[in-house]
Specification:
Elements: H1 16-29, E1 35-36, H2 48-58, H3 73-87, E2 97-100, H4 103-114, E3 120-125, H5 129-137, E4 141-146, H6 157-161, E5 168-173, H7 186-199, E6 202-206, E7 230-235, E8 248-252, H8 254-264, H9 273-283, H10 287-310, E9 323-327, H11 334-345, E10 347-348, E11 350-351, E12 362-366, H12 371-383, H13 385-390
Parallel strand pairs: 1-10, 3-4, 3-5, 5-6, 6-7
Antiparallel strand pairs: 2-8, 7-8, 9-12, 11-12
Helix pairs in contact: 2-9, 3-9, 4-5, 4-8, 10-12
Length: 398
Protein backbone atom coordinates (compact mmCIF):
# COMPACT_ATOMS: atom_id res chain seq x y z
CA UNK A 1 0.00 0.00 0.00
CA UNK A 2 1.32 3.40 -0.96
CA UNK A 3 0.36 6.60 0.88
CA UNK A 4 -0.09 9.41 -1.62
CA UNK A 5 1.78 12.67 -1.14
CA UNK A 6 0.20 16.12 -0.98
CA UNK A 7 -0.73 17.70 -4.30
CA UNK A 8 1.52 20.66 -3.51
CA UNK A 9 4.54 18.44 -4.18
CA UNK A 10 3.41 18.26 -7.80
CA UNK A 11 4.18 21.98 -8.12
CA UNK A 12 7.89 21.68 -7.28
CA UNK A 13 10.90 19.55 -8.06
CA UNK A 14 13.79 18.55 -5.84
CA UNK A 15 16.24 21.44 -5.56
CA UNK A 16 18.78 21.14 -8.38
CA UNK A 17 21.79 21.19 -6.09
CA UNK A 18 20.28 18.56 -3.80
CA UNK A 19 19.98 16.19 -6.73
CA UNK A 20 23.18 17.10 -8.54
CA UNK A 21 25.32 16.96 -5.41
CA UNK A 22 24.31 13.33 -4.92
CA UNK A 23 25.82 12.63 -8.32
CA UNK A 24 28.94 14.61 -7.40
CA UNK A 25 29.30 12.68 -4.12
CA UNK A 26 28.96 9.40 -5.98
CA UNK A 27 31.76 10.42 -8.34
CA UNK A 28 33.95 11.39 -5.39
CA UNK A 29 33.17 8.08 -3.64
CA UNK A 30 34.26 6.24 -6.79
CA UNK A 31 37.63 8.00 -6.63
CA UNK A 32 37.03 10.93 -8.99
CA UNK A 33 38.82 14.15 -7.89
CA UNK A 34 35.82 16.45 -8.36
CA UNK A 35 36.32 20.19 -7.80
CA UNK A 36 33.03 21.78 -6.69
CA UNK A 37 32.87 25.32 -8.07
CA UNK A 38 29.09 25.61 -8.01
CA UNK A 39 27.91 25.97 -4.41
CA UNK A 40 27.96 29.20 -2.39
CA UNK A 41 28.85 27.48 0.87
CA UNK A 42 31.79 29.33 2.48
CA UNK A 43 34.81 27.08 2.82
CA UNK A 44 36.63 29.34 5.29
CA UNK A 45 36.21 29.39 9.07
CA UNK A 46 34.15 31.95 10.98
CA UNK A 47 35.95 34.41 13.26
CA UNK A 48 37.67 32.76 16.24
CA UNK A 49 35.71 35.01 18.57
CA UNK A 50 32.49 33.47 17.25
CA UNK A 51 33.57 29.89 17.89
CA UNK A 52 34.85 30.83 21.34
CA UNK A 53 31.54 32.47 22.23
CA UNK A 54 29.50 29.36 21.46
CA UNK A 55 31.98 27.10 23.27
CA UNK A 56 31.82 29.22 26.40
CA UNK A 57 28.05 29.53 26.35
CA UNK A 58 27.53 25.79 25.92
CA UNK A 59 29.01 25.23 29.38
CA UNK A 60 26.83 27.76 31.19
CA UNK A 61 23.94 26.44 33.28
CA UNK A 62 20.60 26.93 31.54
CA UNK A 63 22.09 27.44 28.08
CA UNK A 64 20.29 24.40 26.67
CA UNK A 65 16.75 25.44 27.52
CA UNK A 66 14.17 26.64 25.04
CA UNK A 67 14.83 30.21 23.97
CA UNK A 68 12.63 33.15 23.04
CA UNK A 69 11.03 33.06 19.59
CA UNK A 70 12.29 36.63 19.12
CA UNK A 71 15.87 35.92 20.14
CA UNK A 72 17.54 37.40 23.20
CA UNK A 73 17.45 41.22 23.48
CA UNK A 74 21.24 41.36 23.23
CA UNK A 75 21.14 39.75 19.78
CA UNK A 76 18.47 42.11 18.48
CA UNK A 77 20.48 45.04 19.83
CA UNK A 78 23.61 43.73 18.07
CA UNK A 79 21.68 43.50 14.79
CA UNK A 80 20.36 47.04 15.27
CA UNK A 81 23.88 48.35 15.99
CA UNK A 82 25.20 46.47 12.95
CA UNK A 83 22.61 48.08 10.65
CA UNK A 84 23.40 51.49 12.09
CA UNK A 85 27.16 51.10 11.66
CA UNK A 86 27.20 49.40 8.27
CA UNK A 87 24.11 50.76 6.48
CA UNK A 88 23.44 54.01 8.40
CA UNK A 89 19.93 52.68 9.04
CA UNK A 90 17.95 52.84 12.31
CA UNK A 91 16.01 49.77 13.43
CA UNK A 92 14.22 49.45 16.75
CA UNK A 93 15.62 46.30 18.38
CA UNK A 94 12.41 45.84 20.37
CA UNK A 95 10.00 45.37 17.51
CA UNK A 96 11.61 45.89 14.06
CA UNK A 97 14.00 42.93 14.05
CA UNK A 98 13.30 39.21 14.14
CA UNK A 99 16.21 36.73 14.22
CA UNK A 100 15.75 33.70 11.99
CA UNK A 101 17.27 30.26 11.67
CA UNK A 102 18.76 31.31 8.36
CA UNK A 103 17.12 33.75 5.98
CA UNK A 104 15.83 30.84 3.84
CA UNK A 105 13.21 30.07 6.50
CA UNK A 106 12.28 33.74 6.38
CA UNK A 107 11.16 33.34 2.77
CA UNK A 108 8.65 30.73 3.91
CA UNK A 109 7.54 32.67 7.00
CA UNK A 110 6.96 35.89 5.05
CA UNK A 111 5.06 34.02 2.35
CA UNK A 112 2.83 32.23 4.89
CA UNK A 113 2.18 35.51 6.68
CA UNK A 114 1.18 37.50 3.60
CA UNK A 115 0.10 35.25 0.76
CA UNK A 116 -3.25 33.59 0.25
CA UNK A 117 -3.93 30.84 -2.24
CA UNK A 118 -4.18 32.41 -5.68
CA UNK A 119 -2.22 35.56 -4.81
CA UNK A 120 0.57 36.40 -7.20
CA UNK A 121 4.24 36.97 -6.40
CA UNK A 122 6.71 38.91 -8.52
CA UNK A 123 9.82 36.74 -8.86
CA UNK A 124 13.04 37.77 -10.63
CA UNK A 125 14.18 35.83 -13.69
CA UNK A 126 16.97 34.84 -13.18
CA UNK A 127 16.67 34.53 -9.43
CA UNK A 128 16.91 32.32 -6.36
CA UNK A 129 14.80 29.20 -7.08
CA UNK A 130 13.39 29.14 -3.54
CA UNK A 131 11.23 32.21 -4.24
CA UNK A 132 9.33 30.21 -6.85
CA UNK A 133 9.26 26.97 -4.90
CA UNK A 134 7.78 28.57 -1.79
CA UNK A 135 5.10 30.39 -3.78
CA UNK A 136 4.07 27.13 -5.40
CA UNK A 137 4.10 25.22 -2.11
CA UNK A 138 1.61 27.56 -0.46
CA UNK A 139 -0.68 27.86 -3.48
CA UNK A 140 0.39 31.32 -4.65
CA UNK A 141 1.42 31.94 -8.24
CA UNK A 142 4.86 33.20 -9.29
CA UNK A 143 4.74 36.00 -11.86
CA UNK A 144 8.19 36.34 -13.37
CA UNK A 145 9.75 39.67 -14.22
CA UNK A 146 12.77 39.88 -16.47
CA UNK A 147 16.29 40.78 -15.46
CA UNK A 148 18.55 41.05 -18.51
CA UNK A 149 22.17 41.93 -19.07
CA UNK A 150 21.55 44.99 -21.24
CA UNK A 151 19.55 46.54 -18.39
CA UNK A 152 22.26 45.77 -15.81
CA UNK A 153 20.13 42.93 -14.42
CA UNK A 154 17.64 45.42 -12.97
CA UNK A 155 13.83 45.44 -13.33
CA UNK A 156 12.37 47.19 -16.34
CA UNK A 157 9.75 49.34 -14.63
CA UNK A 158 8.18 50.33 -17.94
CA UNK A 159 7.47 46.67 -18.71
CA UNK A 160 6.35 46.00 -15.13
CA UNK A 161 3.83 48.83 -15.32
CA UNK A 162 2.19 47.15 -18.32
CA UNK A 163 1.59 43.91 -16.42
CA UNK A 164 -1.66 43.09 -14.67
CA UNK A 165 -0.60 43.58 -11.07
CA UNK A 166 -4.04 43.43 -9.49
CA UNK A 167 -3.34 40.10 -7.75
CA UNK A 168 0.31 40.76 -6.87
CA UNK A 169 0.92 40.82 -3.12
CA UNK A 170 4.70 40.37 -2.76
CA UNK A 171 7.75 41.23 -4.87
CA UNK A 172 11.12 39.57 -4.29
CA UNK A 173 14.28 41.53 -5.05
CA UNK A 174 17.89 40.62 -4.27
CA UNK A 175 20.74 43.15 -4.43
CA UNK A 176 23.65 42.61 -4.57
CA UNK A 177 22.09 40.12 -6.93
CA UNK A 178 22.43 36.37 -7.03
CA UNK A 179 23.28 34.91 -9.52
CA UNK A 180 24.37 37.89 -11.64
CA UNK A 181 26.34 39.98 -9.14
CA UNK A 182 24.62 43.23 -10.14
CA UNK A 183 25.18 45.61 -7.22
CA UNK A 184 21.96 47.60 -7.16
CA UNK A 185 21.95 51.26 -6.13
CA UNK A 186 20.12 53.87 -4.10
CA UNK A 187 18.48 55.01 -7.32
CA UNK A 188 17.20 51.49 -8.02
CA UNK A 189 15.94 51.07 -4.47
CA UNK A 190 14.08 54.37 -4.71
CA UNK A 191 12.37 53.18 -7.90
CA UNK A 192 11.46 49.90 -6.22
CA UNK A 193 9.95 51.63 -3.19
CA UNK A 194 7.97 54.02 -5.41
CA UNK A 195 6.73 51.05 -7.46
CA UNK A 196 5.71 49.09 -4.36
CA UNK A 197 3.82 52.05 -2.90
CA UNK A 198 2.03 52.77 -6.16
CA UNK A 199 0.78 49.19 -6.48
CA UNK A 200 0.39 48.30 -2.76
CA UNK A 201 2.95 45.50 -2.97
CA UNK A 202 5.07 44.16 -0.14
CA UNK A 203 8.67 44.51 -1.33
CA UNK A 204 11.20 42.08 0.16
CA UNK A 205 14.92 42.65 -0.40
CA UNK A 206 17.04 39.55 0.17
CA UNK A 207 20.42 41.02 1.16
CA UNK A 208 23.04 38.40 2.20
CA UNK A 209 25.87 39.52 -0.09
CA UNK A 210 26.37 43.14 1.02
CA UNK A 211 29.89 42.74 2.32
CA UNK A 212 31.48 40.41 -0.23
CA UNK A 213 33.66 42.38 -2.65
CA UNK A 214 31.39 45.39 -2.20
CA UNK A 215 32.75 48.70 -0.92
CA UNK A 216 29.38 50.40 -0.54
CA UNK A 217 26.81 48.15 1.17
CA UNK A 218 23.26 49.50 1.17
CA UNK A 219 19.94 48.47 2.69
CA UNK A 220 16.46 48.92 1.29
CA UNK A 221 15.82 50.97 4.43
CA UNK A 222 18.29 53.57 3.18
CA UNK A 223 15.24 54.92 1.32
CA UNK A 224 12.92 57.22 3.27
CA UNK A 225 9.54 55.60 3.81
CA UNK A 226 10.76 52.12 2.90
CA UNK A 227 9.39 50.60 6.09
CA UNK A 228 5.87 51.39 4.86
CA UNK A 229 6.11 48.74 2.15
CA UNK A 230 9.35 46.79 2.58
CA UNK A 231 11.05 44.04 4.52
CA UNK A 232 14.69 43.03 4.36
CA UNK A 233 16.22 39.62 4.87
CA UNK A 234 19.86 39.34 5.86
CA UNK A 235 22.19 36.56 6.93
CA UNK A 236 25.44 35.79 8.71
CA UNK A 237 26.08 32.81 6.42
CA UNK A 238 28.19 34.54 3.77
CA UNK A 239 29.62 37.52 5.61
CA UNK A 240 30.97 35.52 8.55
CA UNK A 241 31.30 32.00 7.08
CA UNK A 242 28.49 30.74 9.32
CA UNK A 243 26.28 29.00 6.74
CA UNK A 244 25.85 25.87 8.87
CA UNK A 245 24.99 27.86 11.98
CA UNK A 246 21.70 29.03 10.37
CA UNK A 247 21.53 32.61 11.58
CA UNK A 248 19.60 35.26 9.70
CA UNK A 249 17.20 38.08 10.36
CA UNK A 250 14.24 39.91 8.92
CA UNK A 251 13.74 43.60 9.54
CA UNK A 252 10.83 45.96 8.97
CA UNK A 253 8.04 47.85 10.62
CA UNK A 254 6.66 46.45 13.87
CA UNK A 255 3.33 45.37 12.35
CA UNK A 256 5.09 43.33 9.66
CA UNK A 257 7.47 41.72 12.15
CA UNK A 258 4.51 40.84 14.38
CA UNK A 259 2.78 39.12 11.46
CA UNK A 260 5.86 37.04 10.66
CA UNK A 261 6.31 36.16 14.32
CA UNK A 262 2.83 34.64 14.39
CA UNK A 263 4.04 32.12 11.81
CA UNK A 264 7.54 31.60 13.19
CA UNK A 265 6.35 30.96 16.76
CA UNK A 266 4.38 27.99 15.46
CA UNK A 267 7.32 26.60 13.47
CA UNK A 268 10.23 26.45 15.93
CA UNK A 269 11.12 26.87 19.59
CA UNK A 270 13.87 29.47 19.43
CA UNK A 271 17.54 29.51 18.49
CA UNK A 272 20.18 27.81 20.67
CA UNK A 273 21.60 30.39 23.07
CA UNK A 274 25.19 29.58 22.18
CA UNK A 275 24.53 30.31 18.51
CA UNK A 276 22.93 33.61 19.46
CA UNK A 277 26.01 34.54 21.48
CA UNK A 278 28.23 33.56 18.55
CA UNK A 279 26.12 35.72 16.24
CA UNK A 280 26.57 38.68 18.57
CA UNK A 281 30.34 38.22 18.48
CA UNK A 282 30.25 38.15 14.67
CA UNK A 283 28.14 41.28 14.38
CA UNK A 284 30.61 43.14 16.60
CA UNK A 285 33.74 42.04 14.74
CA UNK A 286 36.27 44.67 13.62
CA UNK A 287 36.47 46.00 10.06
CA UNK A 288 39.71 44.10 9.53
CA UNK A 289 37.61 40.92 9.22
CA UNK A 290 35.88 42.23 6.09
CA UNK A 291 39.15 43.50 4.62
CA UNK A 292 40.92 40.18 5.10
CA UNK A 293 38.02 38.14 3.72
CA UNK A 294 37.76 40.30 0.64
CA UNK A 295 41.47 39.99 -0.09
CA UNK A 296 40.97 36.23 -0.29
CA UNK A 297 37.85 36.53 -2.46
CA UNK A 298 39.51 39.07 -4.74
CA UNK A 299 42.43 36.73 -5.41
CA UNK A 300 40.04 33.85 -6.09
CA UNK A 301 37.87 35.98 -8.37
CA UNK A 302 40.82 36.94 -10.57
CA UNK A 303 41.62 33.25 -11.02
CA UNK A 304 37.97 32.48 -11.83
CA UNK A 305 38.05 35.21 -14.47
CA UNK A 306 41.05 33.46 -16.00
CA UNK A 307 39.19 30.15 -15.91
CA UNK A 308 36.09 31.71 -17.49
CA UNK A 309 38.17 33.19 -20.29
CA UNK A 310 39.69 29.78 -20.92
CA UNK A 311 36.15 28.49 -21.51
CA UNK A 312 35.44 31.27 -24.00
CA UNK A 313 33.12 33.10 -21.61
CA UNK A 314 32.65 36.81 -20.94
CA UNK A 315 31.95 38.50 -17.60
CA UNK A 316 31.48 41.86 -15.90
CA UNK A 317 34.35 42.88 -13.61
CA UNK A 318 32.21 45.39 -11.69
CA UNK A 319 29.88 42.83 -10.12
CA UNK A 320 29.66 42.11 -6.37
CA UNK A 321 29.15 39.09 -4.14
CA UNK A 322 30.68 35.63 -4.01
CA UNK A 323 29.83 34.42 -7.50
CA UNK A 324 31.07 35.07 -11.02
CA UNK A 325 28.33 35.08 -13.67
CA UNK A 326 29.70 34.12 -17.06
CA UNK A 327 28.09 34.40 -20.49
CA UNK A 328 29.00 31.56 -22.80
CA UNK A 329 29.42 31.94 -26.52
CA UNK A 330 26.18 32.30 -28.48
CA UNK A 331 24.32 29.04 -28.96
CA UNK A 332 26.05 27.07 -26.22
CA UNK A 333 23.78 24.88 -24.11
CA UNK A 334 24.98 25.59 -20.55
CA UNK A 335 23.53 22.42 -18.98
CA UNK A 336 25.27 20.13 -21.47
CA UNK A 337 28.38 22.29 -21.30
CA UNK A 338 28.82 21.96 -17.54
CA UNK A 339 27.96 18.25 -17.65
CA UNK A 340 30.73 17.69 -20.20
CA UNK A 341 33.18 19.51 -17.95
CA UNK A 342 32.04 17.45 -14.96
CA UNK A 343 32.31 14.10 -16.72
CA UNK A 344 35.55 14.80 -18.59
CA UNK A 345 37.43 17.09 -16.20
CA UNK A 346 35.77 16.48 -12.81
CA UNK A 347 34.87 20.13 -12.36
CA UNK A 348 31.35 21.02 -11.19
CA UNK A 349 29.94 24.43 -12.26
CA UNK A 350 26.34 25.69 -11.96
CA UNK A 351 24.39 26.18 -15.22
CA UNK A 352 22.49 29.47 -15.40
CA UNK A 353 19.33 27.66 -16.50
CA UNK A 354 18.54 26.63 -12.92
CA UNK A 355 17.95 30.29 -12.02
CA UNK A 356 15.36 30.90 -14.75
CA UNK A 357 14.98 31.16 -18.51
CA UNK A 358 17.05 34.35 -18.62
CA UNK A 359 19.94 32.34 -17.23
CA UNK A 360 20.18 30.21 -20.35
CA UNK A 361 23.58 30.55 -21.98
CA UNK A 362 25.26 31.51 -18.69
CA UNK A 363 27.18 29.60 -16.03
CA UNK A 364 27.87 30.55 -12.40
CA UNK A 365 31.10 30.03 -10.49
CA UNK A 366 31.34 30.18 -6.72
CA UNK A 367 34.26 31.84 -4.96
CA UNK A 368 33.93 29.35 -2.09
CA UNK A 369 36.81 27.25 -3.31
CA UNK A 370 40.49 27.41 -2.40
CA UNK A 371 42.94 29.21 -4.67
CA UNK A 372 44.90 25.99 -5.16
CA UNK A 373 41.80 24.18 -6.41
CA UNK A 374 40.97 26.94 -8.89
CA UNK A 375 44.53 26.73 -10.20
CA UNK A 376 44.10 22.97 -10.51
CA UNK A 377 40.89 23.50 -12.52
CA UNK A 378 42.72 25.90 -14.83
CA UNK A 379 45.47 23.35 -15.35
CA UNK A 380 42.99 20.58 -16.15
CA UNK A 381 41.23 22.69 -18.76
CA UNK A 382 44.45 23.99 -20.29
CA UNK A 383 45.51 20.40 -20.82
CA UNK A 384 42.34 19.79 -22.85
CA UNK A 385 41.82 23.25 -24.30
CA UNK A 386 41.33 22.01 -27.87
CA UNK A 387 38.40 19.87 -26.77
CA UNK A 388 36.44 22.87 -25.51
CA UNK A 389 37.11 24.90 -28.63
CA UNK A 390 36.09 22.22 -31.10
CA UNK A 391 33.35 20.31 -29.29
CA UNK A 392 31.04 22.77 -27.54
CA UNK A 393 27.44 21.48 -27.23
CA UNK A 394 24.97 23.78 -28.96
CA UNK A 395 21.36 24.65 -28.15
CA UNK A 396 18.85 22.93 -30.42
CA UNK A 397 17.67 25.73 -32.70
CA UNK A 398 14.53 23.86 -33.90
Amino acid sequence: MRISTAKRLETIEEYYFSKKLREVRERIASGKPVLNMAIGSPDLDPPKEVVQAIQEEALIEGAHKYQSYQGIPELRKAISDFYKAKYKVSLNPENEILPLMGSKEGIMHISLAYLNEGDQVLVPNPGYPTYTAVANLIGAKPLFYDLVENNNWEPDFHSLSKMDLSKVKVMWVNYPNMPTGSSGSINLFQKLIDFAKKHSILLVNDNPYSFILNEYPISIFSINGAKDVALELNSLSKTFNMAGWRVGMVSGSSDKIEAILKVKSNMDSGMFLGIQKGAIAALRISDSWYDNMNLIYKERRELIWKLASLLGGSYDKTTKGMFVWVKLRDGVNAVEFIDNILYQNDIFIAPGDIFGSNGKGYIRFSLCIAKENIEEAIQRLQNKKLHFITDIPMINQN
